[in-house]
Design a protein that fits this description.
The complex is a heterodimer.
Chain A: H1 2-5, H2 7-16, H3 24-58, H4 74-84, H5 95-111, H6 130-151, H7 155-186, H8 191-197, E1 201-202, E2 205-206, H9 213-229, H10 241-244, H11 254-279, H12 295-316, H13 322-349, H14 354-376
Antiparallel strand pairs in A: 1-2
Helix pairs in contact in A: 2-3, 3-11, 3-12, 4-11, 5-6, 5-11, 6-7, 7-9, 7-13, 9-11, 9-13, 11-12, 13-14
Chain B: H1 26-50, H2 54-74, H3 78-103, H4 118-138, H5 140-143, H6 149-155, H7 158-166, H8 170-191
Helix pairs in contact in B: 1-2, 2-3
The chains are: A mainly alpha, B mainly alpha.
Chain lengths: ~400, ~200
């Protein structure tokens, strides 16, 4: 089983050994980067089709069903279309910035994959501050969004960029604060060490962070903030097509538009992968009797599950309003993330047992209820009655 | 243990030679990387000063920030380098472009880019550079150059920085925390709706 688990690592070492000595470091780098780009670009292609099929199923329609078997080659048709379309740049646009914006968006997104552990011994660079690196390059994408929105010289794209940046800055706080809990408990910023800390089992259940009160709350906060960070529904205001047409990439066509699309999905995969690393045990198996399944297969399964949840949420929830979005981030997510940090500290210093479990769970549940009650105020949510539809 | 990491190639088979970094002397490697990064920083900084469009200036300033971060990372100061990216590119640059957008039009201004008090700016720049250079040359890191690079890298490891911040430098940290909280409360008060009378 070890052979299957380490198959990609052995394959790479075998391939590298064929190169002459001076070229081996470069071959090693190349053989790490190219498969990551190919695999995740392929996952992007598959996800676009699956998303359209899934949304179609939720909305009681067919979805793409013309190209290839069951329409699964739709991504190839879309890709060829994007490549062959005319690249239109508005006359008033700032040409240089307009050209650089998609590149400045895609490069940091790909960079963030360099610290994610995809399986046992499968991390491109294991640096001391892996999580910090991830958030640092993630912060660089905000500027690319601004560049795209500003350089287009279009009011709608500028609105879209302002919305996107306001949203990303607001939700970055709960995103980082919720991941601090896992870093506190493990005592390291290295993604590899965080996964290794979750690798042993209590009985047959894995010691994943999500199975603790603070880990569960942290994971939920993290995933909500991740949805907002990747501009996906219900937080897709920056591209709200009924209000501002397409947001910051309204003036992009052809392959540049495809790059924005790619960056959005790859960003979603990357932040999901970080959520898996921090809370869902990375490449470890959930039960001790399932450890024979290769580590990279567990990682892939968890990633696909999270992608499914993203698609499901997109098909289920309506878009938020701007004030709801901001209130939710600053008045609910941020306090909950701060409380969760305190809970993680309490969890660290209490003796293990049911008392610790119950007290930590109560420390999260009580503020959750109180905050929720306080924010809804006097409004009571009842069944909505449509005046003309009844 | 075999690993997938780039650059960490264990010689598990006789065909693999040690990575390239060892074949070039560290001094030469340092110079080439430093030259590229320093050139990037200087060119972006000059562009940030001299371009006419304020947004372009801000974007060039981001290039300078990024170059500085690369410089820190190249010196094995991981935390400072990554914090530089997170704070300066992720927050300060965004603040600057928002300030430009919300206060004035992004059209280039017609004023000359060199003002009559340029000599004051030059004097301040020379003074700052001189004092920084004096500080660096008299610092114990330069004076005790016998310290190996690996030890310095271990000193600035993220864990050590965290421990120091929580023990030795906890008072400055708390003072900064109070200052930032006060600034945030002030911003909220300014932005708050005035009470109806």
């Amino acid at each position: 089983m070890d052979i299957l688990d380490q198959i990609f690592v052995s394959l790479k070492h075998w391939a590298v050994s064929w190169f002459p000595g001076f070229a081996q470091p470069f071959a090693s780098i190349l053989l790490t980067i190219v498969p990551i780009i190919l695999v995740f670009a392929g996952l992007f292609a598959v996800t676009t089709v699956l998303e359209r099929k899934g949304l179609g199923r939720i909305q009681n329609r067919y979805g793409p069903n013309r190209v290839g078997p069951f329409g699964f080659l739709q991504f190839a048709a879309d890709g060829i279309k994007a490549l062959t379309k005319e690249d239109i740049v508005p006359r008033a646009a700032d040409k240089v910035v307009h050209f650089l914006a998609p590149i400045a968006l895609v490069v940091p997104v790909f960079l963030s994959y360099s610290v994610l552990p995809f399986g046992r011994n499968m991390v491109p660079i294991d640096i001391d501050g892996g999580v910090l690196f991830f958030f640092a390059v993630g912060a660089a994408t905000e500027l690319a969004v601004f560049m795209a929105g500003w350089s287009s010289r279009n009011k709608y794209s500028l609105f879209g960029a302002m919305r996107a940046i306001a949203q990303m800055v607001s939700y970055e706080l709960p995103l980082i604060l919720s991941s601090i809990t896992a870093i506190m408990i493990v005592g390291s910023l290295s993604t590899v060490k965080i996964v290794e800390a979750q690798a042993d089992y209590t009985g047959w259940l894995a010691n994943w962070h999500v199975f603790t009160p603070w880990g569960f709350a942290g994971f939920i906060i993290f995933m909500i903030a991740a949805t907002a960070e990747s501009n996906r529904s219900p937080f897709d205001l920056p591209e709200g097509e009924s209000e501002i047409i397409a947001g910051y990439y309204i003036e992009y066509s052809g392959f540049k538009f495809a790059l924005f699309f790619l960056a959005e999905y790859l960003g979603m995969f990357a932040v999901s992968a970080l959520g898996i690393t921090l809370f869902l045990g990375g490449w470890t198996a959930p039960f001790s009797f399932l450890t024979w399944v290769p580590s990279w297969a567990w990682f892939a399964m968890k990633l696909l599950t999270l992608i499914f949840v993203f698609i499901w949420i997109r098909g289920t929830l309506p878009r938020l309003r701007m004030d709801q979005l901001m209130n939710f981030a600053w008045k609910f997510m941020l306090p909950m993330a701060l409380i969760n940090i305190v809970v993680a500290g309490v969890w660290r210093f209490m003796p293990p047992g049911p008392v610790r479990w119950l007290s930590c769970a109560a420390m999260i549940a009580v503020p959750y209820v109180l905050l929720g009650r306080g924010l809804t105020g006097k409004e009571r949510l009842t069944k909505r009655i449509y005046q003309y539809a009844e | 243990m075999e690993s997938w990491s780039v650059g960490v190639l264990e010689p598990w088979s006789p065909r693999i030679t040690p990575p390239l970094q060892h074949s070039i002397t560290p001094v030469l490697r340092m110079t080439a990387a430093f030259a590229i990064i320093a050139g990037l920083v200087v060119v972006s900084a000059i562009a940030a000063m001299s371009l006419r469009n304020l947004v372009h200036c801000a974007l060039c300033l981001v290039g300078a920030f990024g170059g500085l971060a690369a410089l820190y990372l190249q010196l094995d100061a991981q935390f400072v380098g990554l914090a530089q990216i997170l704070v300066y590119i992720g927050a300060v640059a965004i603040l600057i472009v928002f300030a430009i957008l919300l206060t004035r039009g992004s059209e280039p201004s017609q004023q000359p880019s060199v003002t009559s008090t340029w000599w004051m700016g030059v004097a301040i720049a020379v003074l700052t550079f001189g004092s920084l250079a004096a500080m660096v040359l008299s610092s114990f890191v330069v004076l005790s150059s016998a310290k190996p690079k690996a030890d310095v890298a271990a000193d600035v490891a993220i864990k050590n920085i965290g421990t120091k911040l929580m023990t030795e430098y906890v008072l400055p940290l708390e003072v900064i925390a109070v200052l930032l909280t006060a600034a945030m409360i002030g911003a909220v008060i300014i932005a708050m709706k005035e009470a109806r009378k």
